[in-house]
Amino acid sequence: MSAAARNNCATQFDGVSPGVTNFKMGAPGVETLSKCTEILKKATIHRMDEPNAHQLFQYGPESGDRQFLETLASFLTEEYQSPVQADDMIVTAGATQALNVLTHLLFSNGDLVFMEDPTYFLSIRMLESEHGMKYASVPVDDEGIVPSELEKVLQAHQDYRPRELTERKPFWAMLYLIPVYHNPTGVCLSPDRCREVIKLARKYNLLVLCDDVYNLLHFPDKTAPQRLFTYDDKSDPEYQGNVVSNGTFSKIFGPGIRLGWMELPDRVKDIIITSGMARSGGGFNHTMSGVMTSVISLGLLTNLLKESRKDYQAQCEALCGVLRKKLPTASFKEPSGGYFLWVKLPDGIQAPELLKRCEADAQLTFVTGHVTSPTGKFIDHVRLSFSYYDKDVLAVGAERLMGVLDKIRAGQ
After folding, report:
1. β-bridge partners, 91
2. Residue 26: exposed, middle, or buried by beta-carbon count in 10 A (0-12, 13-18, 19+)?
3. What's the pTM value of the predicted model, to 2 decimals?
4. Is 321 left (phi over 0), alpha (psi -120 to 50) or beta?
5. Is 213 helix (H, G, I), strand (E, B) or coil?
6. Which of 150, 176, 266, 305 lies at a C-alpha separation of 20 to 30 Å from 209?
């Protein structure tokens, strides 16, 4: 889509032609967002009726509104089934903004970032092209990043020292992870591997930035896996503070509100809240955090999450059901939460060829596997999102996908 055309769009997805099933969309669907409309109406009235409501329109505290942080910490403690402390948190304008703030403040052009292979495809662009970081990739399997392979890669690069460490840039390198309901694979980092990653982060002086954006989207019969942040235990004699948990309302509510949070060690928090960005701006998205305080305290987010988990499980099952029935030779692991299904295509089928045919003949599109790989691997994989459409639309789209695959395999 041209820049001029984008100027006239109401959303990022307006460029999708009517009738096209877009399996790329890693976002809540229309039904969820329609619920958010009513929720925000109720919450805004509730918050604006409070005597101090006018303060939400002033510059906010650098770390964020205290009432919001305490309300959010209580909510997350319940949902994670693990303690969350308001003192460990700051407010952000969403996970993307948080990633960019951390990278800008704690790293320099030419610094190293270690990334899973595959990973969130836009993180590759942001970290390499927009922040000038040099990446090294590490394999992922059904239990997440492989610690033994991570250490090999760390050892291979340990002599690379592009700058001196300073008080405000104290880490040698970044490790960018999606440890829970990984994008694109859907896997979760196992507890044993979480412990190994913490050991390696301390040994090699890494900042581990966890995109914890899907953690609360476990299916109803599951529980949220422990985030990596909890394994970097402050009571541990070897604790240094190496892990940041980067959370957002974009996946559990609506991306348009541009609001999130980070759990982070004191030494990282201090760097952010004393930065010009936080001090000049008065924190990040102060007004919306006040409204979301009411969304949480009124129980509206809890109710929405319960409904979303049921919907996403049904949508995932609908998609997987068609694949199991129509494509038994494909390989995939059904996720227990998150947004995505990672599918290995039958032998001899490459994702770019399949995508070209699907867009031309079946009015559907998806993310090809090699786009998610820092090294261009996984050309025989596709990422399918089940978050945006209802189960009936997903099933029909999957049937069309299978039809194109059948034609390719038949040489048509």
Report:
1. 261
2. buried
3. 0.95
4. alpha
5. coil
6. 305
